[in-house]
Amino acid sequence: MEFQDVVRKRRMHRRFTGEPVPAEAVDRITRNAVRAPSAGFSQGWAFVVLDTPEDRDRFWTASTPDDAEHDPSTWLDGMRTAPVIVLALASKAAYLRRYAEQDKGWTDQDEARWPVPFWHIDVGMASLLMLQTAVDEGLGACFFGVPPEQVGSVRAELGIPDEFEITGVVAIGHPADGGAKGSPTRRKRKPLDEVVRRGGW
Fold this sequence. Notes:
Layout: H1 3-9, H2 23-33, E1 45-50, H3 53-63, H4 66-70, H5 74-79, E2 84-91, H6 92-98, H7 118-136, E3 140-144, H8 151-158, E4 164-173, H9 192-195
Antiparallel strand pairs: 1-2, 2-4, 3-4
């Protein structure tokens, strides 16, 4: 698929068919994720792939608030149909350690040196590569977050090490109709001349 077609066709899909995702596609999606840029080539990311019904059920049980279990929303009902879930994790410690190495010139691991949390930014870029690769594979995907109050239970259920934080989750599958409508159905894309400035603001 041409790159511009990948960019144009990428959208968040919130319901999937029962058709399985080939293992080769999942492998390509994760291989492309680690081609994302990372500050200092820190590569402080990790990805947890859940592609069996049992593992997906463990994730949804741990990540779903108790009140949602009794009144599932259209969004949750649709997202649970994804045959593949990939948790995208970030290690702040990997970045702090990397920039304390001799070639970077810092002698400490002071987080205050960082203007923004590049560990999450880099994992976000890796996640975008997963979304784009899914399109190129003829699949659909959706990036979403774990509710803050459920992060602890997800970490415990999946054995995520303390060093890693959950940046987000990518659901992958063959798109189906009937999922929750996304914000683009209610909001127009901003005109390019409203968001792009040249030579300054």
